[in-house]
Every structure is written in structure tokens, then in C-alpha cells.
Predict the structure.
Amino acid sequence: MSSSLFASGFRSFFLLAGLAGLLLVPLWAVSFAVGTPLGSGWPPTLWHGHEMFFGFITSAIAGFLLTAVPSWTGQKGFAGRPLIVLTVLWLGARLLIASSWLWPPLLTAAVDLAFLPTLAILIAPPLLRERNRNTPLLIVLGLLWLTNLVFHFAVIRNDPPLAIRALIVGIDIVLILVTVIGGRIVPAFTTAALRQRSITGVVQSRPVLTVLAVAAMGLVLVGDIFWPDRRIAGLIAGIAACIQVLRLLQWGTLRTLRQPIVWVLHVGYAWLPVGLGLKAAALLAGSGFAAFWPHALTIGALTTMIMAVMTRASLGHTGRPLAVDPLITVAYLLLSAAAAIRVFGLSPLRLNYPVVIVWSALFWTMAFAIFVGVYSPILWGPRVDGKPG
């Protein structure tokens, strides 16, 4: 086993996220299209939703936090045995869930629920010691753990609506994370990229919009907890969409079109107001074309931002120039194509539902096949500048 794989948090967990993206979606699509059993004792839709969220997305979050926290706090990075333990926990949960009919439900739940607290225990000391402004992220991890607990409780009680509601709330929590972290990195990275082209004064970040955007996403979360699928939740989503559009308009998106590693951040963030707007249309007006708004938020916003951060951070933290391989640009486009077909394929494009699933899964899988193919050697191998990490 390569020692470099556990030399920094982003290496193992970005690779795991890439492999999860490559494997989980085609498994689900094949099962849906031809009726192949998944092997899990869970209902297929719940397996798919849980593994994409608490498998794929939390792996990417772990890679980000394990790499960002040392940078934020100036402390030594995480490496070696702690990363191996976390990796084993993540893999163990995936295997137990994939064969859950073989095991007591409490065993499966216990192993899966151990991952986020273990991650929090690792990153908490430097954050608390330095009184870092990002310490509230520990609360975010706690809330995500709580949604996973509710999900497992719902599965054991055979209560699919509660399980789906837990996933929606979990998505809202991560969207708040995207709003906060994305609201920092998108304008910062855009400013740096444009400065290299001697373009200045384009990007702005008005504090009032930052506060309003975070508050609005907090209200989206509250709405989905207390008034799920109600008109008030739709109204909140519509207001949040408008605020997010105004926020994005500050960041000079059209000036980034020459640099895929920058414009992909804007595309990912743009899917956020799109998804919120569709949610508002679905809940307020019952619009059929907006029925698949969750996938605009998950495939479009969350996954595109994950891909954007993984491809950029992996280059920067291995000593490579911040310019992506042309194939990765194709992967960015494939991912948005997957989101667009999944969200709009049934209506207004009027494709058959199985066709929507298959084509969306195909584009998604091609995107992650490219990511794994291009980035596996980067994540597995040593830094090109000879530095540790």
C-alpha cells in the first residue's frame, strides 16, 4: 500500500469519493433498469440515497476537512494511522450496508454512525486550541450525524418517508456548508485567477448578501424540518434562490470562461439557486418540470462543487500547477449534463423515465471514470516538489 495515500487527508478520501461516484451510480442504474438485486436488505431507493449522501458526499467532506483544518490552524496535518482507521470505518460501513440483510441492523448502524464522530474527534483539537473561526463546522458534523441516526432509525422501523426526510435535511445542511465555504473560495479563487490576467475590481463580496444567503439557507433547513413539502417551504426556497442569484452575480462569472478550474466553481454554485428555484416552483405551483429539484441540488450543486474542489485541491496540495487536464474539463461538462438530464429529461424534454436514469447515470459515470483515471496517480503518488504530504 502506498505510503503517500495516507500522507494527507485529501488523498485517500478524494480517491474513495471518486470510486464511490464511479461505482454506486451505475449499480443503482442497472438495478433500476433491469431489476438486478442490489444485495442490500434496504429498499433500493433508500440504499441509493443513503450511499450517495453518507458514502460519496461525506467522503469528500472528510477529505476537505482533513486537509483544510491544518491549513486553517497552522497545525501538523493528519497522516498515517488516523487516516487508515477512518478509511477502514468508511469501507466497513459500505460493505455492511451493501450486504445488510446478513447483519443485525444495529451493527450496520453502529459502524456507519461511527465515521462522522471519529472525523470530528480528529479535527476538533486544533480547531478548539486555536479558537478558529471554522470551529462551528464541528456542529455541522454533529447535525449530519444526527440525520444519519434518524435515517437508520427510520430504516429499522420501516418508515421510508422519515428516511427520505432525513436525507433532505442532510442535503440542506451540506448546502449551508456550500454557501459558507463556497462563498469564500469562489470569489477568492476567481480574484486570484483574474489578477494573473491583470483584471481587477471585477469580483465583489458584499457582507450583507453573505449574511442573507447563510440565513436564507438556514431557513430552508428549518422549513424542511417543520414544514416539509408545504407552501411555506417553497416560499423560503424561492427567497433563498433570489438571494443566491444576487450573490453569484457579484463574482464575475463570465470573466472566468477561459479557465475551467475556475468556471466550474461558478457552475456548481449556479446550480444552487436553480435547484432552490425549482423547489419553489414545485411546492408553490406544483410545476411538473420542477419535480426533480433535489437532483439539481445534489448532482448539480453538491457534486459539481465536490468535483471542483477535489480537482483543484489535489493539484495544489501535490505541488502541481493549478491547471486541469483537458479531460477533466470534459468531466465537468458531463457532470452538468447528467444533472440537466436527470432534472429536465422527463419534462420538458419528454424522455422516458428509464432513458432519463440511464443517460444521466452514463454521463455521471463517464465523469467519474475520467476523474479516477486522471487523479488516481496524483492521489496515490508523492508530491512532485518532493515536500511531505
About this structure: The mean pLDDT is 95. The first helix runs from residue 9 to 34. The chain has 13 helices and no strands. The chain has one domain: 3-380.
